[in-house]
Amino acid sequence: MLVLESKCANILFFASAPSYSHQSMYQPVWKELSLRGHKVVAITPNPLRDSTLTNLTEIDMSSMYETIKKLVPKQGLQKLLEKPSFFMVFRKDPIMTYLFSKYSELFFQHENMQKFLKEDRQFDVVVEEWIYPTFAALGAKYNAPLIGISSLGAPIPALDTVGNPSHPVYAPDHNLPVGRDMTFRERLMSGLWAVYVRVLYHLVVLPREDALARKYLGDDLPYLGDIERNVSLILLNRNPVFHRVMPMVPTVIELGYMNRSQTKKEMDPELKSFMDNSKRGVIYFSLGSSIPPSSMAKPILNAIINTFVNIPYDVVFKWDAAEFERPKHILLRKWVPQSTLLAHPNLKLFITQGGLQSSDEAIINHVPIIGIPFQSDQHSNVDTLEKYGMGKMLDYEDITEERLTKLIHEITSNKSYKENAVKLFKLYIDHPKGAVEKAVWWIEYVIRNKGATHLRSASMDIPWYQYLMLDVIGFLIMVFAAIILINIVLIKLIIKFALIVFRRYKNIKNKKNN
């Protein structure tokens, strides 16, 4: 009889972002951990509510969706509906970090979170959503190894916590609206951003969030900046085929390809009938979970609706407000099982904001796109899809009925976009291990080894001036200056000696002549 040793661990999985697209990437990970026998506590706004997962305890924070709506008024949402620009990113970052801070405090104050914090619990590892630093303090509270996880890439300050290089030219911050071929202006602004975001983070964000963490978790915590610098690993939902290739230290793990087939949801009867019975093919329009289409400027919204009214295709329009008068070939839906819809054979085109999860699902289902980016990594994602030839970018402010109609006809009538989507898909999924399996393996690795300090980059333990080689540069400048100074002195001495010799020679010559 074969007996296998099984070691189960107590795992805290903390994912606070009120966004289904974020949570849908984390859910398969904590589900798989529980299925492997680990006792998992998941604190999330999107609990699975699966009674068969007996090792899973979910702290339901779903009411935070309503909280975030109150925190970000409609006027604030209007700011998201702007063409991405450097000025907008520089201006928005202090505002967004402040809103994150307010949201974090409201999360701490939530009844279910307060109840959880009062319980006497021990964890072998804390897996924390690595977007904002506040809740990294949970790793110190439970004296457990800390793992960061992100449903997309990581901003510069997050990469700094493990000493991962983030060069502003070949690896610019994913929040910047830059394409693959950066202009001089984009390189200049990326360099300025790399300095600006670090100054803001260390002088404003970290001190503020450190005070917030101490307020709710106790004043005996180490400084938050020190806590996050001791993170064991960062798991990123990055795929080197799709994202910019950049150097990664051993403590940054690119998960690659997240297979969501296990979480696909069925279409409701009306939507299924609409898709199945379409003779002309279907176009799907969605701006994701954070961009409400009803908030778009009326001229742009009217241009989009008029386009859908007049094109020879059926349209599924993800719409967030009251229904409006429309022809039968346009179906409005407040919620759509997106992955299932994109997999339908009658779907021709996906008009999207270009979020990573939407881009990922478009690639997996070989669906060409028209991308209308607004924020975060959306510009970079759409630019990448365009470079691979599976879609086109359309700036929000440039939307007209004529332009949108022209793009729709171009992409649906040219089979190369579909073919390029298939080519990208084959590259995208060509990995030795799926993202869920890789994430679980690394989490268990940290549990087995009680952390991953042996993988820590040496850059984390040297002074900043040594990291930037300022002492070496300073020394070389001093040597160079000393060589120049010595040469100047020698030249002066040689000239002085030559003049003395010349004068003596001249005096001797004059005496002979006399």
Number of helices: 19
Q: Which CATH architecture of the largest domain would you pick?
A: 3-Layer(aba) Sandwich
Number of strands: 13
**Structural class, please?**
alpha/beta
Domains (count): 3
Strand composition percent: 5-15%
Taking all Cα atoms into account, the compactness measure Rg is 29 Å
Describe the SSE topology.
Layout: E1 10-14, H1 20-35, E2 39-44, E3 56-60, H2 64-71, H3 74-80, H4 86-109, H5 111-118, E4 125-129, H6 137-141, E5 146-150, H7 156-160, H8 184-217, H9 224-228, E6 233-236, E7 252-254, H10 269-276, E8 282-286, H11 298-310, E9 314-318, E10 330-333, H12 338-342, E11 347-352, H13 356-364, E12 369-371, H14 378-387, E13 391-393, H15 401-413, H16 416-428, H17 435-448, H18 464-467, H19 470-513
Helix pairs in contact: 1-17, 2-4, 4-8, 11-15
Note down, in words, how this protein is organized.
Strands 3-2-1-4-5-6-7 form a seven-stranded parallel sheet, sandwiched between helices. It folds into three domains: 10-259 and 432-455, Glycogen Phosphorylase B (Rossmann fold, 3-Layer(aba) Sandwich); 261-428, Glycogen Phosphorylase B (Rossmann fold, 3-Layer(aba) Sandwich); 467-513. With 514 residues, the protein is an alpha/beta fold. The protein starts with 9 loop residues before the first strand and ends with a helix. The chain has helices spanning 20-35, 64-71, 74-80, 86-109, 111-118, 137-141, 156-160, 184-217, 224-228, 269-276, 298-310, 338-342, 356-364, 378-387, 401-413, 416-428, 435-448, 464-467, 470-513; strands at 10-14, 39-44, 56-60, 125-129, 146-150, 233-236, 252-254, 282-286, 314-318, 330-333, 347-352, 369-371, 391-393.
